[in-house]
């Protein structure tokens, strides 16, 4: 059991394996937060009244909304800080938002709102439903707390029902809100841009409100919705760390605000700038789900909690336990593909020991460059004269699987689809249309667009024996206006767009049940839990330069498991003919599901033989890479080296894969200590690569690595218990 209700005190305690979360209904009315942290005795966890001049109270209650730690900070009712919910009555215009507690119940499993991606429950999952009401508007708010005890994760989401007579407008919706006592903390967020995703930013909390967000219509390359709040001194192994994430792929807002009471308020949700939603009388709205975890033992453990959670409850489960090593055509040929070339490419991939060839962009309509053809989902007859199905059969004769690239949400102005249906795109009345990569965004909120796409893909791919789809999305939204929605619903356009995208993902998963989906948005522009719900892995970045990759991959591991992080070996300017460079690129890529992305037809036999050996090596460690516990050791931005290890267990582990990746050489030698704290001090281990023996105590104390003066260099150790 993980949810305990004390009805006498109106108090709830949520427990996971190593964390505890406590709140109660003050005066039987207001859900106030009491504690989130390591498990301890609840004695002494009490509400302490704080009052401040210029904070308001109801005369009969002495309740100061502005100073209290709240489970549900509401706009306009005395809490001057950033709030989680803002509702406007369309009858009176009032945005004074107010709810009081009515009842609660708990149940096994969870509530899963229709149409939204949400975490899967298992036999240990329990949910608390808290019902609140507002007599003035007639609105009913159900707050959900779902507890995933094994991964130390608690999620939050809500459903709002308008049972009143008048319409309401939701003007801010933040399912996650957490008040943490004290404000001397750091915030860690992950910023970036195209080809440089998820770079780490750690800064002390300032007084005031710090925000991260996306207004691009996708979760974006520019900030990840994953964020952390930690002790100032928190390291990978020590100190307190809270981590937060959002199961959503569209616009979002994360806020961290400190205030006069030295409270840190964390909010995560849909925000107020790019979202508002008309809730007509009789309608209800379900928010996406946000998740949080806590670690008393450092940032590394908070990451591992999230990894465990994503692997067990988000990713399409157990379907693809072993991942195909792919060869992708994009960096090999860009748009210059045809049946003959792809067949030769696939045959060579098979000879190198790869599992799958992926035909990237360029196979459909008039798509011979990025200026035309998007939206016309039929095989280009000049390039595939006898169609896709016989071509794929020929490719697969070599014993290799076949994957294909699509970008369903987009259209080139120069396409049959756009000429026939200019009304299918997001476009605002009277406004000029911005282009990005010469494309427009389809109105995925329009059911007709979804039908068109379903028919087109059913026709083109339905009878083709594909094993994998790479689903891309290569621009952000502008002119966010859905011609299929009435004027009063335009604040919902971007939100409803995402619901349409999720609908299409579900259609693919249902109609192509054995096809693995790899997600991509110009690389890692939609690297989020919403996408992970439907796609087994995500192309982490368009940047395959290994040095840049160490930064991107290191940052990505904070919130997301490595099993989702697709990593390819690229061949810029023929550099992989240099054995050391090829080895380095491979070891950088062995941080997640492995692939290759260059013209194997034009490399030397020596390179091909090396690739075969690399794939065998990757297979030896695949179980650890996909399902092991991940420990970060060196931050490449701090010392030019990326080091980490996988272990088969968080403590007293029996098997380790340790990687040291040096991005740049040093004139004078430096040494680094790589401590494997998950080792069992009483055990003996052997490195199966060098044959060298180590005691567990030695591994815990650290392996010493010397820097190599010659630049890019990598080393791997594989320790197993004797
Ligand atoms: C995006 C992807 C690339 C490739 C191209 C094709 O940029 O991230 O991997 O698929 O589109 O146009």
Sum this structure up briefly.
This protein is α+β, with helices and mostly antiparallel strands. The protein contains 13 helices and 39 strands.
Label this structure with key terms.
722 residues, ten-stranded antiparallel beta sheet, globular, 39 strands, 13 helices, alpha+beta, Beta-galactosidase, Chain A, domain 5, single chain
Explain this structure.
The protein is of the alpha+beta class. Among the domains are: 3-309, alpha-galactosidase from lactobacil brevis (Beta-galactosidase, Chain A, domain 5, Distorted Sandwich); 631-721, Golgi alpha-mannosidase II (Immunoglobulin-like), CATH 2.60.40. Strands 6, 7, 8, 9, 12, 13, 15, 16, 20 and 21 form a 10-stranded antiparallel beta sheet that branches. β28, α8 and β29 (537-539) form a beta-alpha-beta unit. α9 (546-556) runs parallel beside α10. The mean pLDDT is 97. It binds alpha-D-galactopyranose (GLA). Alpha-D-galactopyranose binds next to loops.
Average pLDDT, rounded to a whole number, is 97
Task: Supply the CATH superfamily name of the domain at 3-309.
Answer: alpha-galactosidase from lactobacil brevis
* Major beta sheet summary: 10 strands, antiparallel
Q: List the uncertain runs.
A: none
Task: Work out the helicity level.
Answer: 10-25%
* Fold-level CATH name of the domain at 3-309: Beta-galactosidase, Chain A, domain 5
Alpha carbon gap, first and last residue: 38 Å
Summed up, the helix count is: 13
Number of strands: 39
Q: Specify the structural class.
A: alpha+beta
* The level-1 CATH class of the domain at 3-309: Mainly Beta
Shape: globular
User: Could you say what the CATH architecture of the domain at 3-309 is?
Assistant: Distorted Sandwich
Give the amount of beta strand, in percent: 25-35%
Which ligands accompany this protein? alpha-D-galactopyranose
Alpha carbon gyration radius: 26 Å
